[in-house]
Write a structure and sequence with these properties.
Serine Threonine Protein Phosphatase 5, Tetratricopeptide repeat; globular; DNA binding; Arc Repressor Mutant, subunit A
Length: 502
Amino acid sequence: MSTRLADALALAGDCTTAARMSDELLGSDDPAERATAVRIAASVAMHDGSAAQAADLFRWLGPYPDVLTSSASTTAFLAAGDGEAARASSSSEAAGPPTSTARAARSLAEGLVLSLDQPFAVTVARLGQAVTAEYQAGGVAPDTPAALVTLAALHGGDSVRARSVISRAVRAGGTDGSGDEVFSAARHRLLLGWVKMQDGQLAAAGADASAAESGEDLHRRDALWAAALRTAIARRSGDSGAVQKYWYAAVEVLAEYSIDLFSLLPLGELWVAGARMRQVDRLEHALAEAWDLLTRLGNPVLWSVPLHWAGVHAGILANSPGAVAPHGQALTAAAGQSTFARALANAGRTWLRVLANHVDTDEVTAAAKSLSQFGLTWDGTRLASQAALQTPDARVSQAMLQLARDLKQTSAVEEVEVASPAAPVGAPTQTAPAPSSTKLSDREREVAELLLLGMPYRDIGSQLFISAKTVEHHVARIRRRLGAESRTEMLSMLRAMLTPQG
């Protein structure tokens, strides 16, 4: 009765009480009760950003013949960087009948272990069996099958699968979240927002972040993802004030966080934003922990590639070719095992050539479109915009700007199509509709379009042959004309105005 109550409390979001009860049950004489208590305590620990503690709990428990417990322990061991223990746990003997839930749990554990050294297609096929089955775990776990499959898909560049899996999980929770477990509701919503953010759908991503933040105070894992997602949206919107606000909030959470395998995406985003702010030294310890964790796992290609891509961007922003080199080399080395790594390696080389004023239209077009195909539409748009700035050839510059607009327009159309079903009832949204009567001058529209591509004032000025100060004046007039109370609101209103509605 006590373990069932602790499970129910954890799923309902009362992790403090659930953790206290499970701690009291760790000394139980009943092996089954003790194993359940470990699973609950470890799940709460992961929720609070302590994968190391979760792994320690399962080590203390030792092998236990229950597939749900062994699946949970595999998740915790892998998150903490103990590949050997994860393999042992996933292959342990399990008592009980081979129910659909047991098969799904086994597939999840085996898929996670496959992610260490097998191709992405093999890994995701096995992991997918955990979400295609009717998975009713009947208790809390360190992470959900939907979240883990989505994370693997994001790391493998399969944004279509990531969006499909996590969208189903969000919809299964109901439009008001009442059908989803509180324990995982914010987690799922933030992952959906992350998929949209990478694809350049910033307003929809912001709405998902707002939905996740609208309930109780977020636990540490969700708080890290929320702050990193907000940072990512602000950076892509060119809102430097918001970047600083959310970056520092994320760093505060990170100071109390035990870096794990499933937190590398937010860490990578904070690294890039930190490089832009010249604050990377604040992340040195967390980055060292991340690289050490990957080394202990044998530097698995699937989980390493996005962090190396972040390293390329951080090196570029820091104007340090030497810092870019090792990450570019790592992506090139992984290209034989990962088409995603190959696309990123090619894009990285193209980006460096663009910054050196060597703009090849076909090369940039191929690289930018490749990034978009792997769900990194915003990165592809930014590469095309950068190429437009770096070339002295006016025709090439116009072609690159048109490429950037085309990529952004594709993302914007998708955003309009998916925003309505994803929005929860009563959830706050960051999209402010612009008054239909508002008209921008031709010059203001040009400035607005480039602003939405993420260009700073100096680069917009270079493109339009005006000074950065003049750009600033245009932006101020646009804000007054729209009646926006903040830069963030202005950007949201501009997206609403300039997004194709057909």
